[in-house]
Amino acid sequence: MTDDQGILIFMAAGVAALAIIIVIGVLSSRRKRNSGTATWTVGLQYLGEQPYLASSDVLLNDKHEWEMFQSRYPVGTAVPIADGPTLHVSSVKQSLRAGWPIAKAGFTAYFAEYAHSEFPAVFLVKGSNGITVLDLDDSGVTAVDGTDRAVWSSTWRALTFSNGPDLILRNEKEAIHVESNEPLEELLIKYGTLKQMHF
Predict the structure, then answer these.
(1) Does residue 51 sit in the same domain as residue 105?
(2) Does pTM surpass 0.85?
(3) Whether residue 29 is found in the same domain as residue 46
(4) pLDDT tens, 172-188?
(5) How distant, in Å, are the alpha carbons of 72, 75, 83, 109 from that of 86?
(6) Which ranges of 127-196 does DSSP label H, i.e. alpha helix?
(7) Are 178 and 151 in contact (CB under 8 A)?
(8) Are residues 12 and 53 in the same domain?
(9) In 3D, which of 171, 172, 173, 181 has the Cα closest to residue 127?
(10) Which helix (H) or strand (E) is 148 found in, with range?
């Protein structure tokens, strides 16, 4: 057997192992879904001092799991917080959590008591169209370039985002790319709407 044949056999074995892992994961997820049991768990996380609920990862575009999360945390649901007050769900959102080889998403539930408490917020970023700043307020997002000129904007209602290696933001007409940081990403998830645009 030549070295080339050995390499090919090794690569084929690796691909086969990856395929088996994917199939086992998909089958496991389907079994749980068919049993009516959620495949995700939920934990409390914080944006600064602001608590929110975040699920573990699920397969991207798994509508059944998303529907289960929405039904468990409908708007208005009271959620007691350990060593804190009872809070009330104001919105539930999706975001990307992982890409290749299996696209994953996650779900979050945010609380009415903190709605719009983050604004105004300003983030220094590097982005397309010479963007250097993102201004966030109650109405939406404005992107500003190095000459202090607004080059892009969107209302929260119109904003779709994709949070992959960078952030893709789209209004009703065009998309921009900006570098990601955790507080900015979390605010876009909270007030925007996921639209997978990375892969």
Answers:
(1) yes
(2) no
(3) no
(4) 999 999 999 999 999 99
(5) 16, 14, 10, 14
(6) 182-191
(7) no
(8) no
(9) 181
(10) none
